[in-house]
Known about the structure:
With 258 residues, the chain is of the alpha/beta class. The chain has ten helices and seven strands.
Amino acid sequence: MGTLEESIAVSMDRLNHGIIEFLPYILQDFWELGASPEIVISLIKKHKNDYQNIRVLDLGCGKGAVSVKIASGLKCRCLGIDGIRDFIDSAKQKAKEYQVENLCSFKTGDVRTEIETLGQYDVIVLGATGPIFGDYFNALSRISNHLAPGGIIIVDDAYTEDSRGPAAYPGVFHKSELLKQIHDAGMDVADEIVNDDSVNMEDQYNTDMDNINRRCRELIEKFPGEKHLFLEYMDGQKKEYEALSSEVTSTVMVIKKK
Length: 258
C-alpha cells in the first residue's frame, strides 16, 4: 500500500503527488468536489426510509458537500473522511453554516486504513474517489464488511461503453468489466442514474476550467519553480473534462449485497 499522498493523487486522476499541497488553493472556488449531493439524496430517499435513524459514511468526502447536504435534508448522522486536512476544515465550517455540526462528523485520515476501525453504516458513499482501494472488486469486498443489513453503497464514477473499444481514459473500466467486478464481490447494481446532460456539462466545464486555470496561473506567479506541476494539473483537468463530456459515461450507482 502506497503513502496517503500517493493514494490522494490516484483518487484525483493520477496526479503528480507534488501538487497535493496546492490543491486547497487551486480548488478554493469549489465546494462540491465529487458526487452531486442532490443525486445522492434522491437515491437515499428511493432506497431507504426512516431517514433520521440511518448512518452515512462518506469516504473521500472532500469539503463535505455530500454529507452536509444529506444531514441538512434528511436529518441523519454522517461521518466524512478525507486525506486533506484543509478540506476537512472546510467541511467542518460548512457543517456549522448549515447548522448540522451536531449531525456531521469529519476527520482527516487515510480511508484505506480508517475503514478498518469503523462499524457498520446504512449508506456508504464513494463520491468520485477513483481507485483508492484498487479495483472495484477489492473496494467492494472491503467496504461490504461495514455495510449494515439492507444497506447500500452509492458510487459516483464513470465507465467506458463496451462498444467504444479500448478504454478512453486511464483508470476507467469498460462497463462489462465494472459489472463483473461488482458481481464477483457478491453485489449487484440496484439502481443507476446516468448523466447525459451534455449542454449543462459543457457550461459547467467552462466555468470550472476558468476557475482552475486562474488559480494555477496565480500559483505559477508565486512559485515559478513549480510551474510544471501547475501546467500538468491544468492539462490533466482539461483532458478529464473532455473525456467526461464525450468519451465516457458518468454514472451514479446504487450497489447492494446479493
